[in-house]
Amino acid sequence: MQYTEIMVRYGELSTKGKNRREFIGRLNGNVTKALHGFDQLRIHPKQDRMHIVLNGDDGKAVMGRLHEVFGIENYSPTVKVAKNMDAVHDMTTKIMADIAGDEPKTFKIETRRSDHHFELDTNQMNLDLGDWVLDHFPNLTVKMKHPDITLRVEVRRDGIYLMNQKIKGAGGLPVGTAGKGMLMLSGGIDSPVAGYLAMKRGIDIEMVHFFSPPYTSDNALNKAKELTAKLAPYVGKITFIQVPFTEIQEQVKHDVPEGYLMTVQRRFMLQLTDKIRVMRHGLAIINGEAVGQVASQTLESMVAINDVTTTPIIRPVVTMDKTEIIQHAKDIDTYDLSIMPFEDCCTIFAPPAPKTHPRLDRARYYEDRMDDVDGLIQRSLDGIKISEIKSTDHFLNTDQDVIAELL
């Protein structure tokens, strides 16, 4: 079946009142970026629908891209016809012939009419088209609840639209409508999931990744970039900020008692991320912490670490079980990458028995007695590298045989 357009429904945007135009505008921009490379189609965002007129572009390929755009509740491949019943009857025959087959099936007609000047009202359209289908397809019978086929008809001012599918979209809010946040991206399972969930609520994320050569390898850094590329389709491209952390980790290892190594190290990570947030005009910090999952994620640890900033810290996976987070990671195709065993800076110098209930006053004390804390932070900031990562970028050979050789 040759569809003429994809009709997009906004869902949650309908609750946004006076901000609705801004949300639709942002969604239009995100859809435009997602559909880059489709040169013939045209996008028409309207108050209650977005119409993507294909003009010959591949509808299936377009829908594959739309599936990853937040802010879309659902969408339908659609045919637009002139506002006369001969055209509607002709297209109804073509659509039903394409999907009905020869086996007995049930169907119903579901009409919506926003143009109240059209000659037939909703009930009359349902009856007319129902009779037409019954006359032309003897294997079909009417069933109002849970039919095999639902032919949806929308009578609008500019034409009549026919469709038989309603495909679930990504939901959520358009990325960017909630402002910008800095995601503390490790190489593990949790932080990419946190990034995905933050984007789903409209947050435009930038990745902050700490690396510590020679203790961490180029493969660990490239793994983080590859994870970023996995999330890029939801927004088009993502800024990746790599932060050198070797000097700080070595100094913490030298100056801080073993039990507080992880606490003080993470205090530095959070301070650096917050300073980068200011530089990049972000509004919040996002991480993949889940309560009680590891020593640094007890409530006492969070208090001792969060002490260095008053910036909001968003933890999208904070109450999830590990099995829930893993399932999310599999759903967004980051799990296999995340479990590749390249050490990141969170795992090096990890003490065998970190404090699970660190005291805030002790964490402050051990950090304050370190030499040249401000200099350590500034030298790390001076060494950051910023790049843009797209979904088509690749940084790591993910073939399992190659990985086995590297290890």
Automatic annotation (TrEMBL):
Q: Which InterPro entries match?
A: Rossmann-like_a/b/a_fold, ThiI_AANH, ThiI_fer, ThiI_N, THUMP_dom, THUMP_ThiI, tRNA_STrfase, tRNA_sulfurtransferase_ThiI
**GO biological process per UniProt:** thiamine biosynthetic process; thiamine diphosphate biosynthetic process; thiazole biosynthetic process; tRNA 4-thiouridine biosynthesis
Q: What class of enzyme is it?
A: transferase
Recorded hits in PROSITE patterns, A to Z, give:
THUMP
Sequence positions that bind ATP: 184-185, 209-210, 266, 288, 297
Gene3D superfamilies (UniProt xref) = 3.30.2130.30, HUPs
- What catalytic activity does the UniProt entry give for this protein? [ThiI sulfur-carrier protein]-S-sulfanyl-L-cysteine + a uridine in tRNA + 2 reduced [2Fe-2S]-[ferredoxin] + ATP + H(+) = [ThiI sulfur-carrier protein]-L-cysteine + a 4-thiouridine in tRNA + 2 oxidized [2Fe-2S]-[ferredoxin] + AMP + diphosphate; [ThiS sulfur-carrier protein]-C-terminal Gly-Gly-AMP + S-sulfanyl-L-cysteinyl-[cysteine desulfurase] + AH2 = [ThiS sulfur-carrier protein]-C-terminal-Gly-aminoethanethioate + L-cysteinyl-[cysteine desulfurase] + A + AMP + 2 H(+)
Record-annotated THUMP domain positions: 60-166
Q: What is its main location?
A: cytoplasm
Query: Could you confirm whether the keyword Transcription regulation appears in this record?
Result: no
- The EC number(s) given in the record are 2.8.1.4
List UniProt keywords, sorted A-Z.
Answer: ATP-binding, Cytoplasm, Nucleotide-binding, RNA-binding, Thiamine biosynthesis, Transferase, tRNA-binding
Listed under GO cellular component are:
cytosol
Is RNA-binding one of the keywords UniProt gives this record? Answer: yes
Q: Which family does it belong to?
A: Belongs to the ThiI family.
- HAMAP family cross-referenced by the UniProt entry: ThiI
Question: What is the protein's known function?
Answer: Catalyzes the ATP-dependent transfer of a sulfur to tRNA to produce 4-thiouridine in position 8 of tRNAs, which functions as a near-UV photosensor. Also catalyzes the transfer of sulfur to the sulfur carrier protein ThiS, forming ThiS-thiocarboxylate. This is a step in the synthesis of thiazole, in the thiamine biosynthesis pathway. The sulfur is donated as persulfide by IscS.
Q: What is this protein called?
A: Probable tRNA sulfurtransferase
What's the source species for this entry?
Lactobacillus selangorensis
